Amino acid sequence: MPSQVFINLPVKDLQRSMDFFKALGFSFNKDFTNEQGACLVIREGSIYAMLLTEPFFKGFTKKELCDAHTHTEVLIALSVDSRAEVDEMIGRALAAGGSLYREPDDHGWMYQHSFADPDGHQWEICFMDESQIPKP
């Protein structure tokens, strides 16, 4: 089975994207970061997002890139440890230049809220209390 996940996302302005995610509290792996792309550490040792400049990203696909502001290409969902942490990350995302694309959903056992980064990629932040999942 795979041991690491690398999500590759095209970005228009690499430094703007890096600044945005740093404002949310994320870090970057300097060994895999240069002027063409940056390795966003989501979970050290296992989950990363490669933020690649559009020209560099295009070298990996024969398809046209979509405008993530008008088309959905992927939904990236991250779990956190509390409802408060969900709201805190959304607040940091908005303060750093992101935007809301959905209102929060509260299912009792799961609370989620969503933002779009400056390139329009959709990020869903959720807290789940599996002990509260309704039993059939």
Secondary structure layout plus pairing:
Elements: E1 5-11, H1 14-23, E2 27-29, E3 37-43, E4 47-53, H2 54-58, E5 75-79, H3 83-95, E6 99-106, E7 110-116, E8 122-128
Parallel strand pairs: 1-4, 5-8
Antiparallel strand pairs: 2-3, 3-4, 6-7, 7-8
Essential attributes:
single chain; 136 residues; alpha/beta; 2,3-Dihydroxybiphenyl 1,2-Dioxygenase, domain 1; 2 domains; 4-stranded mixed beta sheet; 3 helices; 21% helix; 38% strand
Brief overview:
With 136 residues, this protein is an alpha/beta fold. It has helices at residues 14-23, 54-58, 83-95; strands at residues 5-11, 27-29, 37-43, 47-53, 75-79, 99-106, 110-116, 122-128.
Would you mind describing this structure in some detail?
- The chain is α/β, with parallel strands linked by helices and 136 residues long.
- It has 2 domains: 61 residues, Roll (2,3-Dihydroxybiphenyl 1,2-Dioxygenase, domain 1), CATH 3.10.180.10; 67 residues, 2,3-Dihydroxybiphenyl 1,2-Dioxygenase, domain 1, CATH 3.10.180.10.
- 21% of the residues lie in helices and 38% in strands.
- Strands 1-4-3-2 form a 4-stranded mixed β-sheet.
- A hairpin with a 3-residue loop joins strand 3 and strand 4.
- The protein is globular, with a radius of gyration of 16 Å.
